[in-house]
Structure formats: C-alpha cells, structure tokens
Amino acid sequence: MKKLATALVLIGSLAAARQVQAKPLTLITKLRYFGGYSAYIALYLVDPHGHYVKTLWMAGGYPYYYHEMTDWFRRSRGDYKGLNGITGGSVGAGRTLTVHTHVADALINAGYKIYVDVASQGMWSDAMSVPLTTNESGKVIHGRNYVAGFEYRL
Question: In CATH, what is the architecture of 22-153?
Fold first, then answer.
C-alpha cells in the first residue's frame, strides 16, 4: 500500500511539473480569399539555428499533398510520423484556423520561431515566420499570398 501511495505522489508531482513547464499557445491563421481548392496549413517550430523542431498542427487531410507546403516539407524532411493526433481538415478561402496547443516555457524568448506554410493544390506555397516571444504575442503579421493575418497568443 505504501508503494502505491508513493507512486501516486510521484506521478502527481511529475504531472504538476509538466503543467508548470508548458504555456498554452493559441495560433490563429486567417486566409485571404483565393480561387482554387481549400488550403493546407502547416504550423511548426524552428530553433534559433533554423532547424525544424516539430509540427504544432497540420491542416489538410491527404498526406499526398503535404509536399506542396515546400518549406515545411524541406525543413521537416516530410515528418509524417510526427503528425499523429495533430491534423485536421483543409481550410477554405477567407476562413480562419484557430489551434490551441502548448509550448515549453524554455522555448519562449529563446530565439525559436513559429512558421506558417500554406499551399493549395496546384498553386504556389506561401511560408512566413514570427519569433516566439512575449513581445510578438498578440500582434497580427500579414502574409504575402494566402495569409491575410497570423497571430499567436501565449
């Protein structure tokens, strides 16, 4: 019985420590009106050296088209295995994608960037980035092609 109680206390303290080390992160991507198919959107983290860290969210149901998000595909080397549980449907023109996730406290204000890569079947790819800092949180960044506005909130 003592071992069970000790194990439960240990598990509870580890869970509490994990919650303290991660902040809620809301990612909001507003698309422009464009002709063509619904867009695929990859939201991912890149470290201070420009290396891919992980995908935060992938909008688009058919992996066959993920290569059209050329920046994400190049940086992640087509990291399909890292997409389990973080995918959803593609996003139509003029629509907004809102994603709720968590990010480790250590990554904030440490030189990491959030990248947004958007593509529509048979059309161009549009990638942009924003530093993951408390100062940039809540600011809307405007894209060149598909993205009318992107912001994140910590």
Answer: Sandwich (2.60)
